[in-house]
Amino acid sequence: MASVTSLTSSVNQRLADALSAALPEAGAGADPLLRRSDRADYQANGILALAKKAKANPRELAAQVVGQIVQGDLLLEVEVSGPGFLNVTVTDRAIIETLAARAADGDRLGVPVKEHPGVSVIDYAQPNVAKEMHVGHLRSAVIGDALRGMLDFTGERTIGRHHIGDWGTQFGMLIQYLIENPGVLAPAADVDGEQAMSNLNRVYKASRAVFDSDEEFKERARKRVVALQSGDKETLDLWQRFVDESKVYFYSVFEKLDMEIRDEEIVGESAYNDLMPETARLLEESGVAVRSDGALVVFFDEIRGKDGEPVPLIVQKKDGGFGYAASDLSAIRNRVKDLDATTLLYVVDVRQSLHFKMVFEAARRMGWLGDEVTAHNMGYGTVLGADGKPFKTRAGETVKLEGLLDEAVERATAVVREKAEKIGLSEAEIVENGRYVGIGAVKYADLSTSANRDYKFDLDQMVSLNGDTSVYLQYAYARIKSILRKSEGDTATAHPELELAAAERALGLHLDAFGDLVYEASAEYAPHKLAAYLYQLASLFTTFYDQCPVIKPRPAQDVVENRLFLCELTARTLHQGMALLGIRTPEKL
Ligand SMILES: NC(=[NH2+])NCCC[C@H](N)C(=O)O
To answer: Where is the motif 'HIGH' region annotated in this sequence (predicted)?
Structure first.
């Protein structure tokens, strides 16, 4: 099925044609700058600036443009307003016909795919081996997954990279402890997520205690690091056991999050070990990195620390070891060369933004990044507690993710249970819906705030039925589904010949904007714009449903059918939009 041009684009094109007829010197590319408006359906604001440039009177130019407009079936009225704006009203027919074309396009809803899709490699959901996941990891996973859904929908090819922290000197300590206490880590195949994490916690704490108190153990642990780095087989096998055990835990959390993570996309820091010596050599040979006190570093004039001295990016330490930066620089080479990436996205805590600024700039100097391949860090803000301070337990520790997710599901299940009897939900359905509502609430609270801002983790607010929450959207969806079930004898059919009520037009115009919105939000990496769109859609539906009876009191048959058509398209748009954000919409709630 062909994609559908939105009404906004059609009207914009119509006005652009009239504009270049009225003012030929403005050329074919002159943009009337059409926006949705409260006064009419749309307002065009572009004429003012063009008139100024052509030294013409804006109101006169606006009137000339109106004179050139071909109205056809699309436009009902175009009038000059204010200093030289155009207020535009489209016909009811145009609205319903366009929506009918969208409705005929299955899940895509007439949304076009990119003409020149690229390859976006998205670095997200990157917890650390042998460590518990915290709320920061939640944000990366949720935002990354939503971005991926949105980009995929516009035809972009996306590849996930879960750059887990699976390398570093702490493994010397862990592995040495495991060698000396072989029974402490049950095989990954024998444990569930919770057991895996409690095993790892136990080993971590125990080995840390020995490490801190026993100098000889410390020395053995140091030697173990060297063995690990030189690729000693026995050491690597034990390291792999920590990775495998951790993966059991990661997968259980991702499953809780209702998120699909693919094994082949878990490519951690260690995966780039073999590339790092070459990365360092290339950087040094080209002069981008220099030796300083024996270390290999990149300097940036423009990046200074608090003391005013340049902050270097350390590619290779004095002792020859490679760290986080070398791994990230090598990952860039790999993603660009082997994965053919055109865009590199990183969904990482804003506190790492200096690191990425330096890594990207170094890669740019090397020509690994440039006009053809760009990199962006979607640095996200901090998760705050209900008191507005960084989210910590009473003991001051970072809050563990699983407990939070369980609590969200528990609260949501209680909310679902309240209405369960009335709508006839089975126990299994209550449990499933509770999960979708609870996890949806957590995801939506994160996604509805722009990523770079902090947000409050407030469970009471998150599962509230009123306000900008996923539950509100899920209820709107389920309500429409119930209306559709109750109207079984009638079909949802578009009737373009009907005159529309104001609330029908408002809903219809918003439905039409879905495709443009998904495009814009994807291009700006802004899931919060999609969330805001969906919230508005649900609100417009509520107004429509209050003002325009669908079956009770029963209007004329064609009106019933047309309203059911609007109901159905709203439900499908809500469902699809939420799916792009990674949130489920239960059929009955
Ligand atoms: N390519 C990257 N450096 N990605 C981010 C990794 C995040 C890191 N594992 C952390 O927990 O902070």
So the answer is: 127-137
Question: What is the value of pTM for the model shown?
Answer: 0.95
Question: Would you state the pLDDT for residue 287?
Answer: 97
- pLDDT score of 108: 95
343 lines ligand 1 (CB under 6 A): no
Burial class (CB in 10 A: 0-12, 13-18, 19+), 542: middle
Q: Say which residue the tokens 């170094």 belong to.
A: 362
Residue 102, burial from CB neighbour count under 10 angstroms (0-12, 13-18, 19+) = buried
CA distance 305 to 334: 30
Ligand 1 centroid–CA 4 distance in Å is: 40
**ipTM > 0.90, yes or no:** yes
CA distance 388 to 6: 41
CA gap 144, 125 in Å, rounded:
7
- Please tell me the predicted confidence (pLDDT) of residue 306: 78
| Residue whose CB lies within 8 A of the most ligand 1 atoms, among 335, 348, 398, for a mutation test | 348
Q: Residue 92 has what DSSP assignment?
A: H
Contacts of 377 by beta carbon, 8 Å cutoff, 6+ apart = 346, 348, 352, 353, 356, 357, 360
